Each structure stands twice: as structure tokens, then as C-alpha cells.
Amino acid sequence: MPDSSQKRTALALVDAFNRMDVPAIIAFRDPACLRHFYPTAMAQNPQDTRSYAQSLTALHAIFRNFSLTIDELIEDSSNPSRPRICMWLSAKADTAVGEYVNEYVWLLDFNETGEKIVRTKEFSDNLMARDFFPKLREAMGKERERKAAEKAQAIGM
Questions:
Q1: What global pTM score does this model have?
Q2: Residue ranges in the chain modelled with pLDDT below 50
Q3: N or C: fewer beta carbons within 10 Å in the chain?
Q4: Taking Cα atoms as reference points, which of 132, 119, 122 lies closest to residue 42?
């Protein structure tokens, strides 16, 4: 049996992440798609497509050798007008403060054709994020300061 349209889209989305191809990642989303974060204790508002693209662009500058692996993929085709896929994913990347390792569960709702994602629910390891991202922000700030100092020195300030 050939893969469904939504499964092909989900696999292509993971491939786009592995290339950190932000325009390709965004192209799989319906313009009105919202990204919801879980657990709700994270208290983050949903992201629209524009803010999601901005977040991905920022991550592209931070992560090197980003790798997203599908550990499990479950397809729900019980409602043909609302196909869904759930993926458990493992992520790794190199950063200025060491290796980034995280796990996600993405619940993706698709349009009727399975070619566009209309809603995402993203569960992530928020303990890892709580500990990792403050260190990364600090390192990024130091790098910005270093580059600004180099630029100032180069122009003779």
C-alpha cells in the first residue's frame, strides 16, 4: 500500500528540518496554521506561521548539524476530512554550548488533501529546554559582543 499524502508530507517536513530549510518547512503549513505548545505548564501562546518562521530562522543561526529522527509515526485516518499524524521525534544539534539533545511529540492535523498542515500540537522536553536555553542565550550574547568589538576595531573605533 502506498504512503498517504499526509504521511508523505510529514516525512518531507522532517527532511526539510534536517536540511534546516526554513522556506520548505513553512511551505508545508497552511497560512492559518497555529503551533500549540505542550505541556500547558509551559504557558506559551500558540505561534502563527510568521512567528514560527522567525523562530526557525533564529534556530538556524544557532544549531549546526541539526538532525531530527522519527522514532515512531502513527497515522490516524479514521476521519478522512481531518487526517492526522503523530510522530515521536529525537533531535540533536551542535551549538556554542555543546550538544543539543531533545525529544518531541508532534500531533499534526492536515487539510483534506493531506498536503498542508492546518494545526500542530508540540510536546517537548521542557526540563531540557529550561536548563539548556539560558546557557545558549548567554553564549549568544557573548558572541554578539565579540563580533561587535571586532567590527568596531576593524573600523578604527
A1: 0.84
A2: none
A3: N
A4: 122
